Amino acid sequence: MSGIAAKPKLAVWKFASCDGCQLSLLDCEDELLAVAGAVQIASFPEASSASVEGPYDLSLVEGSVTTPHDARRIREIRRQSRRLVTIGACATAGGIQALRNFADVDAFVSTVYASPEYIDTLATSTPIAEHVPVDFELRGCPISKSQLIEVITAFVHGRRPDVPTYSVCEECKRAGNLCVMVAHGTPCLGPVTHAGCGALCPAYNRGCYGCFGPKETPNAPALSERLAGLGMSDPELVRLYRTFNAHAEAFREASEAREHGDSPTEKKSP
Amino acid sequence: MQVIEREELDRLIGLLAGDGYEVIGPTLRDDAIQYGPVRGIEDLPAGWTDEQDGGHYRLRRRDDRALFGYVVGPQSWKQYLFPPSQTIFRARRDADGLHMEPAPVQAPKRAFLGMRACELHALAIQDQVFTEGPYVDEPYERRRGSIFRVAVNCGQAGGTCFCVSMETGPRADRGFDLALTEILEGGRHYFTLEVGSDAGQAVADRLSASQAGEDEHRASMAATEAAAAQMGRQLDTQDLPALLMGNLEHPRWDEVADRCLSCANCTMVCPTCFCSSVHDSADLAGSEAVRERVWDSCFNQAFSYIAGGSIRSTPVSRYRQWMTHKLATWHEQFGTSGCVGCGRCITWCPVGIDITEEAAAIRATDQRRKRRDG
Predict the structure, then answer these.
(1) So what's the pLDDT on residue A46?
(2) Do A164 and B300 touch (CB under 8 A)?
(3) Cis peptide before B84 (omega within 30 of 0)
(4) Residue B134: is the preceding peptide bond cis (ω within 30°)?
(5) CA dist B39 → A137, B17, B354 (Å)
(6) Domain residue spans in chain A?
(7) CB neighbour list of residue B330: distance below 8 Å, 6 or more residues apart
(8) For chain A, how long is the longest CA-to-CA vector?
(9) B55, A223: Cβ pair inside 8 Å?
(10) Which member of A17, A65, A149, B309 has the greatest number of CB atoms within 10 A?
């Protein structure tokens, strides 16, 4: 059993999330045995109730911080982890629940719950990196299985993950998809969205929903201008940017620019 | 110049297939005219045309049944000769050591039907890039050696075409095996046929063709002259390399960078862009590895990554790099322009950035003149 002791200890943690990203790890089927062979899965409540004490060599963190308790818990996990990698839109951008950041949480709580006094929640949903230092952020809603394997493999081999940060358009063009925006006039976030999904939606003639969040050096204002030209109203633009990555800086700013009616298009008109 | 009737084109496709070529040509797919397998003239987009402008492409019905009554589509022939991704080798590590296995090169016999003059020029440029320097790209060379080129001269220009400015069309003057010009007049539908190589001659000899008469010859020339007169765009190439390289700090670069998404669509659709990057991946156990080469783009930060970071970290530096390479430094590197005037970068830019407009804007406010006059 000495071999097992030498393996890096992997832990998987859940914060505010739907569990879909950590399930991607269980969904790895073909590679799962290889993962189990390369690392010791020390803590992964979704897979096993057995748990090994920290510290951990690699922590995968899913979900966003939405409660005071979680804000404390992530600091303890960071303290116990040599490397900490966040996985998915919730952990890297606050997730869909970050829509609360644009609204009044107390109003939500009093509307939804019969006894609001039992609810202890923060006014915002924030990514893990706003609370503790993060070694690598893996994007997506959900994450890509192959990119997750790449991140774990890179960690095991002691190198940087090869996860491109360019646009979805490049995946689209390499796959030979037709551009739905140019050829159909379909609104698409592909030109400002981080690659990783393999251009799934455009392959089915749908515009990109931005599940992987902003790409490197995103120019959302220029895309908004074009989408407005294609007939999208400001409220539609706000909704387009406010989905799974609503709190990601570039998408947040793009939606806020259209929310307050101070869009460049409107400025031009008298 | 010879003449074949419309139905003889069907026989040409059949002859090429019979010679073992997979015939690839324009087909209707997802509301666009895209290259794909063609088994006969019934697979061609009869009666369709395309409407193109900056960031805009739409199919439109023609009022005739022309088979080639449109211009170039979203992707170029590049995808077949310089594929978006290719495996270079696989490596395996076992008790005996490391074993390298070069990936087999797929070089199927393919006939490209409907290559436009601009695309033939793009092919010549990629030939030069990949095969004429000191380092020959062997997979490209092998794939390139297996193709048969059937050019189709343009009888009309598209909204973003500017081959006349680049002197690359609209009539194919070389670099083809066979060249067709489609003519519809007085209820007759035929093609003039020109032979550009021995391989082309060997195929033409088996077609039922007649010598072109004076009228047919005139109609063929008139078709491309009409296209030449309809160019949707133009680019003044006079002294263009010096103009751009003398204006590297022109404020226009900042303006275009405000609009540029750095999404890399222009480079992906460009038929001459040839950049790629190489990626190694290994399995978790570290016993199997694969090296792949994929299309890359100067619009990506990682493309210019060197020790310490990306040297073109801003979109302005990336757009300027792309445009000055295409129109200026390509001349120094390869002796030609890197642009063939096909217009794809204009049509398929999601925000419609127009290389001809950018060049014209810089020319109109040439900072060199300002400095001299100032």
Answers:
(1) 82
(2) yes
(3) no
(4) no
(5) 48, 8, 36
(6) 2-157, 168-268
(7) B336, B337, B338, B339
(8) 76
(9) no
(10) A65
> What are the pLDDT digits (tens) for B310-342?
999 999 999 999 999 999 999 999 999 999 999
Domain boundaries defined on chain B: 2-83+104-228, 240-273+297-373
Q: Which of B57, B297, B351 sits opposite A222 (nearest CB)?
A: B351
**Residue B268 forms contact with A (CB below 8 Å):** yes
Does residue A8 have a cis bond before it (omega within 30 degrees)? no
Question: Where do the DSSP E strands lie in chain B?
Answer: 2-5, 22-29, 32-37, 48-53, 56-61, 85-94, 97-102, 110-115, 147-152, 178-185, 188-195, 210-211, 276-282, 288-295, 305-306, 309-310
Is the CB of residue A180 less than 8 Å from the CB of residue A202?
yes
Out of B56, B263, B280, closest to residue A191 by CB: B263
> Taking the CB of residue A27, how many other CB atoms lie within 10 A of it?
13
**If you ran DSSP here, which 8-state letter would residue B347 be given?**
H
From A246, A180, A183, A234, select the one nearest A207 (Cα to Cα): A180
Q: Show the beta-strand stretches assigned E in B186-273.
A: 188-195, 210-211
Looking at this protein, which amino acid is placed at residue B276?
S
| Distance to chain B for A209, nearest Cα, Å | 16
Strands B178-185 and B147-152: parallel
User: How many contiguous H segments (helices) and E segments (strands) does chain B have?
Assistant: 15, 16
**What ipTM did this prediction achieve?**
0.95
Structure-block tokens of residue B128: 């030069």
CA distances from B249 to A120, A234, B367 (A): 55, 35, 9
Which residues in chain B have Cβ-Cβ distances shorter than 8 Å to A222? 258-261, 351
Residue A129's pLDDT is 98
Mean of all residue pLDDT scores within chain A: 93
Cα B336 from Cα B260, distance rounded (Å): 26
| Nearest-angstrom CA–CA distance, B181 and B185 | 13
pLDDT for A5 beyond 60: no
- At the topology level of CATH, where does A2-157 sit? Rossmann fold (3.40.50)
* Residue A32: closest C-alpha in chain B: B284
Under DSSP, is residue B233 helix (H, G, I), strand (E, B) or coil?
A: coil
Structure letter (DSSP) for residue A46: T
**Cβ-proximal residues to A119 (8 Å cutoff; 6+ apart), any chain:** A109, A113
Instruction: Find residue B101's DSSP bridge partners.
Output: B90
What is the amino acid identity at position B327? L
High-pLDDT (> 90) share of chain B, %: 95
Picking from B57, B262, B292, B353 by the largest number of A CB atoms within 10 A of its own CB, the best residue to mutate is B262
